[in-house]
Amino acid sequence: MEHELKTLTTRLLAQRWLPRNDKLVRRALVDETFRHELDRRLADVGLRLLDNPYAAHVGVALQPELAEPVFGAGREYAASNMGLTRDEIALLVIIWSLIVLPKRERQVTRRERVDDGQTDMFGGDKPVAHGDAVSGTLTEASLIADFGPRLGGRTKVRNFMLGKLARLGFIERRNGLISEGPLLDLALDYRVMADRIIHGTLGEVLAAAGHPMPEANAFAHADRLADALPDDEVAEEAR
Asked: What is the pTM of this model?
């Protein structure tokens, strides 16, 4: 077990995120002793495992009490500890809203993007799906047309802001399409953001641009599911 723990810890530190279906990650999700030791080793250097059963990856982050001592000296920490400007954070939240919120609704209702909800009477018994089956894409052209003028101009969004979000692992860009990156659903806390977006000003802005938001009750159900399941069942759900 020692070698596996050292390997997983090192890979998490070096690669920043790993897929949930990775052999050692799956062991950390179902083996209580292994997970406890992994958490201890990460805690020794001020880190914690980011593990969201609805996300396709796991990663590491600072323990909350260490964010200020580590990042507080930098002026950019007022906006983001990843060097994002306010405009870039706004774009990130918009993309999160348009990709992750609909994806979460599909995951909670056990539907896939091509499913109208009537093809499988036992869909509610399925494990939570990940990847292309539930995660949609955005076209860069439509995103820029809808929100570019509000975020500093189309050229800035296309040539600089989207590239930065891709380098940080929040999104992936391919053939004019934007899809979910490893950190998009992992690093942003939907428990905090979903209700604020749906019932807040951003929800109205998105709806006005032709992007209506899902109903909030799906996210309340998602919270209850994640909180109620024991760790081994959460891991099984996430597979």
From this structure: 0.77
C-alpha to C-alpha distance for 219 and 158, rounded to whole angstroms:
31
- In contact, 118 and 194? CB cutoff 8 Å: no
The structural domains of the chain, with segments of one domain joined by +, span: 2-71, 77-238
Tokens of 160: 């600089």
Paired tokens of 210: 């032709």
Q: What does the pLDDT look like over 99-144, one tens digit per residue?
A: 998 888 888 776 665 554 554 544 445 566 666 667 788 999 999 9
pLDDT tens per residue, range 169-182: 999 999 999 999 99
Cα dist from 94 to 22, 98, 104, 209, whole Å: 30, 6, 15, 11
Residue 179: φ, ψ to 5°: -125, 170
Q: Classify 37 as helix, strand or coil.
A: helix
Side chain identity at residue 104, one-letter code: R
Question: How many Å apart are CA 239 and CA 236, to the nearest integer?
Answer: 5
Phi, psi of 115 (to 5 degrees): -100, 130
Encode burial over 182-211: b for 16+ CB neighbours within 10 A, e otherwise: bbbbbbbebeebbeebbeeebbebbeebeb
Helix or strand (DSSP H, E) at 177: strand 177-180
Q: Which amino acid is at 153?
A: G
